[in-house]
Amino acid sequence: MSFLVEENAAKRRFEILVDDALAGFTAYTPRGETLVFTHTEVDDRFQGQGVGAALVRGALDQVRARGGRV
């Protein structure tokens, strides 16, 4: 199983793809230089497989890499 976390700026969220299928997302609201995460969902088919943890870790890593704040 392969995970890919990418930002969908148009929808203001980070999405996780599992084997190329959308498995979940975490939505955010920008407040200046800070992103406030407001909601996270993982599709029922992917519950209990570490998808949520991978999503949050990937989103935080990307925000930190560009010098952002959470």
Largest sheet, strands/sense/barrel:
4 strands, antiparallel
Helix percentage range? 10-25%
Structure class: alpha+beta
Please count the helical segments.
1
Measured on Cα atoms, how large is the radius of gyration? 12 Å
Shape: elongated
Residue fraction in strands = over 45%
Please write the string of helix (H) and strand (E) elements: EEEEH
Question: Strand sequence of the main sheet, in spatial order?
Answer: 1-2-3-4
- Total E-strand runs: 4
Low-pLDDT segments = none
Cα end-to-end separation: 28 Å
Mean pLDDT value: 96
Description:
By secondary structure, the protein is of the alpha+beta class. The chain has a domain at 1-26. It has 1 helix and 4 strands. The chain has one helix at 51-65; strands spanning 3-8, 13-18, 21-31, 34-42. A 4-stranded antiparallel sheet has the order 1-2-3-4, with helices on one face.
Features:
4-stranded antiparallel beta sheet; 1 helix; elongated; 70 residues; alpha+beta
